[in-house]
Amino acid sequence: MRGLAERGDAVVAAVHDFHAAAALADRVLLLGEGGVVAGEGEASELLRPGVLQEVFGVGFGPAPGGLALPQLRGVPAR
Known about the structure:
By secondary structure, the protein is of the alpha+beta class. The chain has helices at about 1-5, 20-25, 45, 50-55; strands at about 25-30, 35-40, 60, 70. It has a two-stranded antiparallel ribbon.
């Protein structure tokens, strides 16, 4: 996909994995409840714990590379 974008083609992908989105996208669109746009911008700015917690109402904690992982209650951290 990166090759297509570098060639000047528009690339649109729907991903539910924040790490994949960060690796693939320069810009992201966060969709909240009901498909409402909750955020749009640089992946490095939107895929952060505070932003994701506000959009999805679930606690997120830091992960390698400055990304965010959901913090699930009752699930031991690895």
